[in-house]
Protein 1
Amino acid sequence: MSIMKLTPDFAASAQLTEADVNKAAAEGFRTIIDNRPDGEDAGQPTAADMAALAARHGMAFEHIPVVPGAIADADVAKMADALGRASGPVLGYCRTGMRAATLWALSEAGITDPETILRTAARAGYDLGPLRPRLAARAAKAAGGVGTTLKVFDVVVVGGGSAGIATASSLLRRRPSLSIAVVEPAATHDYQPGWTMVGAGVFAPEVTRHSMTAVMPDRVTWIKQAATGFAPDSDEVVLVDGSAVRYRVLVAAPGLKLDWNGIPGLSEALGKGGVTSNYRYDLAPYTRDLVRGLKRGRALFTQPAMPIKCAGAPQKAMYLSCDIWREAGALGQIDVEFHNPGAVLFGVAAYVPALMAYVERYGIDLRFGSKLVAVDGPAKVATFERRAADGTAERVERPFDMLHAVPPQVAPDFVTNSPLAGETGFIAVDQSTLRHVRYPNVYSLGDACSTPNAKTAAATRKQAPVVALNALATLDGREPVADYDGYGSCPLTVERGKVVLAEFGYGGTLLPSFPAWLLDGTKPTRAGWMLKSRMLPEVYWRCMLKGREWLASPHRIERRSQVRSA
Ligand code: FAD
């Protein structure tokens, strides 16, 4: 163990052993604070064991267990109390010391300025940079700035993407008198499902992007800046300019972060030398141009570990590319590989046979257990970590002529570092009501929330009316009235003209929108292509974003219980 002194009164450490406690006592520490839940690791001493050890030296002991990424303001209050009660130097510990340092830093905000706190922590080896907005929010609040003369809205929506705009519109359709603010820094709004079609030359890029003004509902207050933190204990959202906005109900929908830097070399390589991704508006046309230009060689398509938005999109890009090469007579000269760290082509078994037929037709080399870990753009070499069934891993280099890469996907930093985050970093909500598990006047939907559905715009289409109804119930002092079944949809574009329309909910339950005679989602169909290429964009722009809930009627919890009791 190494005790990392942050101040004369506080030090942080990784897990303490008996010898460490003896040493800490000898060094004059008077209190030990354990910030680990019991049972995190095999062989970890329990809080009771550690309390007994501390008692042997006459030291006080406090157990304030927190999990990484989910430190609530209530935890900080407990830490601040414990630090305040201490009769001498305090030693906080967890698995690495990071949680102890984080709790100390948050407790200090309001007493010491945030930059000094961050510098102090950095000197002791703890990079707490991502905590900056939360520290600033706490400091401002303590100074009486944030939270005193704030404008209060009935609903504040963070994020004007698919989920945020659909929810604001659904709320206003039901109750036009609501005061709603949408916090959204972007000037444009994207229909991301269209990027697959741009990459195949089916859509022009411009049809997938509208101005934010065009989609922002008329009656909302658009706050044109980014949120940098959530302060749910005081019902506030902190903004990038240091101000804040207060809500009666919060709808958090800031999407997810595409972690382009998570794969060394990828960011620098994108957009030239054959490296592309349909996951960026500006790069989807480059995919189209690359595919049209490739006549022979090796094309690699990669998928990162789950969760990702639209889990089918990495392979959609591949099938459509293969279809173009097939038509051009080039497919026979191109080796196509699909690298996926998972073990299956698609998570819901019912759709796999139809997809496998296309894998065989296009001669695709499926490489499961294979994760893209580095890209050397100039040398045109991709490095993969290949994991065998026995768990052993080896690195494999694959030269390429074209690489379609999809980055790892994580919660936005300001979400991960907020009290709203759950263990995965995403916003922790009940998967049925979409209400936050700790803050009853907070809802979240879309890519940013923790629910285990397929992260898709189709999911947000169904979630938005549920959140709208439940948010209204909360405003009226009632419990949530609607629930969400995990519906998500992935129109798998297996060729230009046919789609395998995967529609499913929690646990992989098939939830087809149409009877099989009209559209059998487990088979490639022209009807599916019509839906994807013609109807869904219209449904998106004209219905979903306007609060017209086509194919998205919310399921009411009361109705089901009435039926049951009837
Ligand atoms: P987004 O639509 O990403 O919106 C998030 C919004 O939050 C953005 O406007 C952003 O500017 C804003 N924001 C970010 N940070 C902040 C901040 N700090 N403060 C305030 N605002 C912030 N879905 C389907 O249903 N079918 C498909 O076929 C399909 N194909 C896809 C193909 C590709 C290539 C991609 C990339 C996605 C695809 N999706 C598909 C997924 C779908 O687009 C997303 O799941 C959906 O957009 C999620 O909506 P959202 O509102 O949660 O996030």
Protein 2
Amino acid sequence: MRRKLVIGNWKMNGSRAANAELLSGIVSGLKDVNDRADCAVCVPAPYLAQCQQELNATPVAWGGQDLSIHASGAYTGEVAASMLVDFGASYVLVGHSERRAYHGETSELVAQKAVVALAAGLIPVICVGETLADREAGNTEAVICAQLQAALEAIPADRLAQVVLAYEPVWAIGTGKTATPQMAQQAHHFLRGCVAQKSADVADKMRILYGGSMKPDNAGELLAQADIDGGLIGGAALKAADFLAIIHA
Ligand code: PEP
């Protein structure tokens, strides 16, 4: 039985004051849910220290939204895996569609980032997903398979079990359009099958999150699907009540 995992992706949002209110709202509303689910927030790098301070010894973990493939040096603007670890991060998103679209990240680079994250002891959340044009052309499976394949090839078999996958159809992110539970389940089942080609055991244990306009009113049905093991939440993670409602779902 896979434990559910709900991760909030704050994207480029936040301020020290707003974060303090959001984090304390989440922590105080969580109570005993941690018996059944894990929960984390992935925040802009400058707020990692605040997370460390405010979430330490709470059931809420934290992480980054990206990392560099380099360990240190002349890479202005980048954040190393060791820096995320230094601030107590457990997770890091890699290959979010906004990174792929606005920063030209290829699946090979995303795979390298996942390898670097794992080597540093971080859990990479590898994001894959098709655009609307891909879906309409009937290419959903080919696209998400190719995105995942690069990571499956790069990650050593003994590390694969630590990976979290996120299926995020690009057309559903921040748009209010959600994949139907059936559509999402089909994609998740397909992705699990791709992982199974490398290791059936790992595929069985791997948590695959759905992301794309997951909200309190659609979370229950999505999370009830056999292969949907949690959510990667954008907009709804910025309101404690909404994020908590999804976690409780
Ligand atoms: C995301 O940013 O990964 C995301 C899923 O956003 P939203 O929930 O707002 O669609």
